[in-house]
Amino acid sequence: MVERVALLRAPNPSAMTLDGTNTWLLASRNGEAICIDPGPAIPAHVDRIVAYLRENALRLRSILLTHGHPDHAPAAPLLAAATGARTLAHRFSAAPHDDVLEDEAELRVGDLQIVAIEAPGHTLEHLVFYERESAALFTGDTILGTGTVVIAPPGGAMRPYQATLRRLLDEFGDARTICCGHGPIVTTPRAKIEEYIEHRQRREAELLAALAAGPQTIPDLVERIYRDADMRLWAAAARQMLAYLLALEEEHRVRARRLERPMTEREHAILNPDWVNVVGAEHAPLVEAELGAQLRLDTIYEYSLTPA
Ligand SMILES: [Zn+2]
Q1: Are residues 110 and 183 in the same domain?
Q2: Of 7, 14, 77, 283, which shows the fewest CB atoms inside 10 Å?
């Protein structure tokens, strides 16, 4: 019997993608199928998807994109050309797609019943999918099987992300499984979503506690909070910290003051690292997309708590 939900992992392991991108194939009993996140444009991966469909006598009808990042979406045109399937994505998606999925849109393919949920946070054009019969939640890069996800401006935003997590907990906390964009299947969805919510609250509390010591720049904060971490993680930490600080600034809980001096080399290395040097040419494009490297940080700000 064909599996209702099958995982084909793309051969693109890295620090950003864990063991590789998870491509999900959902099979209806009438032989129609849906693919969620076809993955990077690696021909061998696309061939494997096509072979899986053929071996199981499945006709691919729809390709759904959780978001447009280079490890999730670029295989879509190749898979569409090989199968004739239509590609569906968020209306803001820059990845090529045929149709748009609005929030709470229902998609029926045979007896598969998918609902699309807008899930801004990791990117503003992120969708999460829920398949009703298997009660499986497909979370892309909103929730991973292990570790946490990157929320980095300008594509990522912290408060929308936290609202997305709360919504997933309220509406899909009873899901049977979370099928993530990377990492293993999560069999305890409610606990996982709660863990993610708490992790963000804890990180923000840490940041506010660090700021209580006095005004600091992002590199100062990173060195204080991530003192014991691998220095290669500092740049990623700096971008996530910026996501928290932008939210806190908007809420008038933190003030940013522009420093009228050029950035030091140390600051520049943390805020605008040369990713090719840090992770190598092969992985740099993905890391740059995930961490919002197109946003160059050319001025240095000092952050302080707003007096109560
Ligand atoms: Zn991503």
Answers
A1: yes
A2: 7
pTM: 0.94
164 alpha carbon – ligand 1 mean position (Å): 15
- Ligand 1 centroid to residue 27 C-alpha, Å: 25
Question: What digits encode the pLDDT tens for the residues 63-91?
Answer: 999 999 999 999 999 999 999 999 999 99
Distance from chain centroid for Cα 57: 32
β strands within 158-289, DSSP E: 177-180, 254-258
Q: How confident is the model at residue 21, as a pLDDT?
A: 96
In sequence order, what are the residues at sequence separation of 6 or more whose Cβ sits closer than 8 angstroms to the Cβ of residue 59? Answer: 31, 32, 33, 53, 83
| CA 88 to ligand 1 center in whole angstroms | 17
Cα–ligand 1 centroid distance for 308 (angstroms): 37
Whole-number pLDDT of residue 279 = 81
Q: Identify whether residues 66 and 176 lie together within a single domain.
A: yes
Residue-wise pLDDT for 86-114, tens only, equals 999 999 999 999 999 999 999 999 999 99
- Please say which residue of 161, 177, 200 terminates a domain: 200
CA of 93 to the centre of ligand 1 (A): 12
Helix axes 234-250, 158-172, angle to 10 degrees: 90
Give pLDDT < 70 ranges for the chain.
none
Instruction: State residue 60 phi and psi, 5-degree precision.
Output: -80, 120
